[in-house]
Amino acid sequence: MPEILIVNPNTTGTITALLQRHGDQQLAPQASVRAVTARFGAPYIVDEASFAVASHATLDAWAAALAEGAAPDAVLIGCFGDPGLAALRDSSAAPVTGLAEAAVLEAAALGRFAHLLQRSLPFLVGSLLSVPLAGVFWPDRFDLGFLGLYALTLMLAAGLHLASLRRLVRA
Fold first, then answer.
1. Considering only Cβ atoms within 10 Å of each terminal Cβ, which end of the chain, N or C, has fewer?
2. 73-95: string of b/e by CB count within 10 Å (b at 16+)?
3. How many CA atoms lie within 13 A of 161 on its CB side?
4. What stretches of the chain show up as alpha helix (H) in DSSP?
């Protein structure tokens, strides 16, 4: 039977239990689920510092799970920000995804991407706009290339949002 490893990058055991329960409900009896909790870090990932630590904790929890048992057939990072996703993909022979990536792919496959963007765009815009504003107040910390990349990302997000809203209006 295939095994899915779910890594909870924060230190809250009740979240791990919830991930285990939902994994079992969705995948049993076709696959077994093993959920593990980060051995260090924050109880909840709320800022860049806790996200950075969670990226390291994800790799550590995955390595500890490997040491305790057989390699999983797939790995899910059980946190919507997907901390450590790229690094874990580099390290794991099994396929790896995270909750955010999986949600975006599922929403796109179901034609519900507009709904996802509608809820997340204000947060995304706020995040992207904070960097240019920081560049105005602290110009010595940012270069034009960095700000240009953020502007391009903002335009891409706005374009995706507009296209999704047009699709939603036509539906």
1. C
2. eebbbbbebbbbbeebeeebebe
3. 15
4. 13-27, 48-68, 85-91, 99-109, 113-137, 144-170
Say if residues 85 and 96 touch (Cβ distance below 8 Å): yes
Radius of gyration of the chain (CA): 19
Please name the amino acid found at residue 2: P
**pLDDT at 144 (0 to 100):** 58
> What is the C-alpha separation between 41 and 55, in angstroms, rounded?
9
The CA distances from residue 16 to 2, 121, 143, 152, in Å, are: 20, 28, 41, 37
| Residues 17, 23: Cα–Cα separation, whole Å | 10
Contact by Cβ (8 Å): 42, 50: yes
- 121's CB contacts (< 8 A; 6+ apart) are 157, 161
Give per-residue pLDDT as tens, 105-156.
777 667 665 665 565 555 555 555 555 555 555 555 555 565 566 566 666 6
The pLDDT mean for the chain works out to 79
Rounded to 5°, angle at Cα 73 from 71 and 76: 100
